[in-house]
Amino acid sequence: xxxxxxxxxxxxxxxxxxxxxxxxxxxxxxxxxxxxxxxxxxxxxxxxxxxxxxxxxxxxxxxxxxxxxxxxxxxxxxxxxxxxxxxxxxxxxxxxxxxxxxxxxxxxxxxxxxxxxxxxxxxx
Length: 124
Hints:
It contains 6 helices and no strands. It has helices at 4-22, 29-36, 42-57, 61-64, 69-85, 88-121. Helix 1 (4-22) packs parallel to helix 5 (69-85) and helix 2 runs antiparallel to helix 3. The radius of gyration is 23 Å and the shape is rod-shaped. It starts with a helix and ends with a helix.
């Protein structure tokens, strides 16, 4: 049976991993997941909700028996496994390529509009 201390240790480990991979500084898992936002899949947010629900039950000894230890452990394992696969360098390169792609598209559209305007005015 998972106790409150084990749950806190696992949560701190997940928060440290989130800080290392995404630069998120938070003392609670829901706030960290909110800051990470769409950079992780939706199922990861659901797994974090399972963990947070279990953390809510830790203050009540009778309610803590309702906690599904296997499900909570699986949630920790899946979050940790996914966060370990995140590559900070790859995310940075993808972000730069996204900006460059949108910038080049905008320049192409602007050039086409300028050419159309000059043709309409009779300069070309």
